[in-house]
From TrEMBL:
This is Uncharacterized protein.
Length: 63
């Protein structure tokens, strides 16, 4: 059985150390704008408004 995370990375129940580490990594990607840059580098369109919203959210939170 798998637990979906808001970041769309799946982990198994009870893998709390893995979940916490991945959560930290993904929040960092959002905070730094790395995912927005990756989207541009790979010519993914249309651009995802969710990435901008999450970037602003985590940058403001200092996550």
């Amino acid at each position: 059985e798998l637990n979906p995370a808001p970041s769309v990375i799946w982990t198994r129940p009870g893998e709390t150390d893995t979940q916490a580490r991945l959560d930290s990594i993904v929040k960092g990607w959002h905070r730094t704008g790395w995912l927005i840059d990756a989207e541009k580098r790979h010519h993914i369109s249309p651009p995802s408004p969710a990435l901008v919203e999450l970037h602003d959210k985590f940058q403001a939170a200092g996550a």
